[in-house]
Design brief:
The chain is an all-alpha fold. It has 2 domains: 1-82, Alpha Horseshoe (Serine Threonine Protein Phosphatase 5, Tetratricopeptide repeat), CATH 1.25.40; 103-168, Serine Threonine Protein Phosphatase 5, Tetratricopeptide repeat. Helix content is 74%, strand content 0%. It has helices at residues 2-13, 19-29, 33-45, 49-61, 69-81, 85-97, 105-117, 121-133, 141-153, 157-166. The protein is elongated, with a radius of gyration of 16 Å.
Length: 168
């Protein structure tokens, strides 16, 4: 359910949506998953990064379609390659977790860096963790802490909570 909330939140942050894209997201929000899946699928095939990102979530969760982590990853990657910050973050997460793709921490770092540079607070936090623990990069606790701080400054609650814990 957290992805449905994330999808709805993403929609609120996008000021101008094509009518059919909005219809696809509205169908998903209202529980008409098959209809939303059909609309987003059609738009994703035209190269719409927002539709690709939404479709990836549907595949990841199995909403309106069979759950398919590999296909979800492919759509996240398509949106990421077009500069979609959420797609970049999810590509990083997939490489970090091995969800739908072979685990590769160095590729996770690359995608998180792109998403963080685009202002994605969760990517900043994830990147901090990889630097802090030396996963996919040379261990650098200062750089890790810098990324945690940037994430917290962007208002990301897990980063704020983590920094509060380590400062006690």
């Amino acid at each position: 359910m957290k992805y449905l909330s994330a999808l709805a939140g993403m929609l609120l942050s996008v000021s101008v949506l094509a009518g059919t894209l909005e219809e696809g997201y509205q169908a998903v929000r209202s529980g008409e998953l098959e209809q939303g899946f059909a609309i987003l699928s059609e738009l994703a095939q035209t190269g719409d990064a927002d539709a690709q990102f939404g479709l990836a979530i549907l595949y990841k969760e199995g909403w309106g379609t069979e759950k398919d982590l590999k296909t979800a990853f492919d759509y996240y990657l398509q949106s990421a390659n077009q500069g979609h910050p959420g797609g970049m973050f999810e590509a990083g997460w997939a490489y970090q977790s091995g969800e739908g793709v072979e685990r590769d921490y160095s590729l996770a770092v690359q995608w998180y860096e792109k998403a963080a540079s685009a202002g994605h607070p969760a990517a900043m936090y994830a990147l901090g963790g990889l630097y802090y623990n030396g996963m996919g990069v040379e261990k650098d606790t200062d750089k890790g802490t810098d990324w945690f701080n940037k994430s917290a400054q962007a208002g990301y609650q897990p980063a704020i909570q983590y920094l509060n814990q380590i400062r006690q």
